[in-house]
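2024-03-11 09:14:02 DEBUG pipeline.ingest accepted 1 chain
2024-03-11 09:14:02 DEBUG pipeline.ingest length=449
2024-03-11 09:14:03 DEBUG pipeline.predict start
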Amino acid sequence: MNKRMIMLMAAALALLSAVGQVSFTGYGEYAPIVVTPDKSTGLESIFVIFDTQGVGMSFASSSGEPAVWTSYNSNNWNYPETISGIRWDGSSTTLSQVIPNMGYIIQEGTRPHYYWVVNYADYMLELNDMSINNESPCNLLTFNIDGHGNAIPYYTINGHRQVLDRDIKLTYNTLVWDDSTHWQEQEVVERFAALDQGVEITPPLCNTEFSLRGDYFLNQWGMEQGIDEVYFQTQAVSCGSSAEQELRDNSNEKGLDSGLGGSAPVHIVFTGYPTDAVVYREWEMATDPDFENVILQYNQDEVDYTFNETGTYYMRYMVANAAGTCEYYGDTYTINVSESELVCPNVFSPGSTEGVNDVWKVYYKSLVEFHCWIFNRWGTCVCEFTDPGQGWDGTYKGRLVDTGVYYYVVKATGSDGTKYNKRGDITILRYKKGASGTSGGMGGDTGGY
């Protein structure tokens, strides 16, 4: 075989693209692209050819018999038409000129094969310029595209219209909330099957540049088109927020595990995190979830607030841009402040069993004011404290007191306005021998306490 013959064979192979039993010739430097559709379409493959002019299509027979070719489109899918001029060379049937944008049914014996052939030249993507329509910059951003990239349709074997995904990409940056305390700038790639339905996105939350590029088929052929560096100054706003409640670990206080709120005083730090275009911000506090009765407003990002009154409160963070044309409301926080309660026990046993009933404490909820005095039988104040979470450990001047009866006076105010004036006795039970170096008393310098 001479050198010229080898070169001719190589050239012929370069003009041949085969998928299964189907192959094409005469397509030049841009090889047909094969798309595998969903099985529900009934099609085995979709072939996208850059330009079908001069392209032939062959089907290799596995039965040794010539196949019968018919075609269909959206109008005659139920009554396909026989294609004339099919050549048989003993192994393959060939159509010398592909009929573009058409469905093919190639019957090999009793088995039909279904294909669709697209002439990309009829749907050529063209991107010249792009501008931004700013009529609704808060919720929707639309683009005016100078060019075209219409949908590429094909039809299932039952005549249902489908569209090939051209994968046209719009790339830009926006801010993404990380669900903690930060907005992170992140690249976004929006994908569009075609341009004839318009290009619309949610407005980005930071200034950015847009890039429009496509499509999938031109990219595969090394001919991708694009429009870059279309600058956009954002007007859209958003916000994140957090509510951090100060925690107390009082074993004698009820309602500390009820989410935001619970036993008063409830101290919460509210923090708002605005996006770039925010100029105006406000925390609102209301007594109803619809915020019709707003009782407090704070024009700042952080609010440090203590709830001292029983009730249900609602708090939210709101932001707006400089013109006031775009605004956004963050999450609504519900704070339930419970009603008050106060119970005073009358017995405890300090020095008896460590950690078990060895401190006298009131049991309470939502006390915003508190004062307690404890006296011995001679009227001497042996303990005084103003924090209801505290208590008396049964000592006076650093030593355990005698067993017996002592007296308490408690004055308190609840978050619901209830005034408490409680008086009563406390019985100290005998503690174990040897506690604090005594055997039931405190020695001669105690004065009988």
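2024-03-11 09:14:41 DEBUG pipeline.report Confidence is low (pLDDT under 50) at residues 1-18, 433-449.
2024-03-11 09:14:41 DEBUG pipeline.predict end
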